[in-house]
Amino acid sequence: MNPATQSRLKIASSDPPERYSRRLLRYVVTEHELLPGSRVLEIGCGTGQLTRHLDRLSLEVTAYEQDALSLKSAIQTLPDVEFHHWKDDAQRLGEDGKFDLVIVHGSELLTGDLFEDATLRWTAHMAGYLRAGGSLMFLVRHDPVQLQNPVGHLPSCYTRLFSRFPGSTTKIMVPDALSDQRTWNWVLGRRPRAGKIAVSLHLPKQAISRFEWHQWIANETARPQVPCCLWARRQAAVDVQIRRAA
């Protein structure tokens, strides 16, 4: 793991425990047409807070987590759920075409330019686990310091990424609760409102094989690429400086 990635993960590990509002849970279930027995692949499940809600709805969840302590806590809390250690973005996570929904909480590849070849290939790799008509959902925090100088991707970055793939895209922004300190920073006019963004890619009803995904991504990555946003361009420059100093 390079120094830039270690720095990002250290920042992420200091975030407060995640909470999931009814509005967000309603989006996860209804927008993706989940029913009892639907198969869900959850990447970066943490201590299993969202996993717990999905399990209570009788969904068949397969969850992966990178942090050993969080994974241990999730296993102890939800012994009937299938948990695995998430090693890296190249890891095989199950059978192709098996899942109705793939949820990604975080990935090293989502902390840089979303239009890089590696990110496009990984997104297609995740989509390969979906059945025909299934959905891929990125669930990320949106915590801008200033609208003119965002810290992190804009919501439009994720929708533009998914717009390059077959299917349709939906999204929802769920602000933090009023009890959250970050919300009061917004109330007092100190910074824009923070919350969670859920962006979903809904695949066509026709099945897409892993081979067809490889063909599609080869054509897509052959196109000229530009950074998805100004923040990504700045972040890439910071990463270069960190690597040179290491």
UniProtKB/TrEMBL annotation:
Listed CDD domains: AdoMet_MTases (cd02440)
Keyword Methyltransferase: yes
The keyword Transferase is assigned to this record: yes
InterPro entries: Methyltransf_25, rRNA_Ade_Mease_Trfase_CS, SAM-dependent_MTases_sf
Domain Methyltransferase: 40-134
Keywords, alphabetical: Methyltransferase, Transferase
GO function terms (MF aspect): rRNA (adenine-N6,N6-)-dimethyltransferase activity
PANTHER family, sorted: MALONYL-[ACYL-CARRIER PROTEIN] O-METHYLTRANSFERASE, METHYLTRANSFERASE
Protein name in the entry: 16S ribosomal RNA methyltransferase KsgA/Dim1 family protein
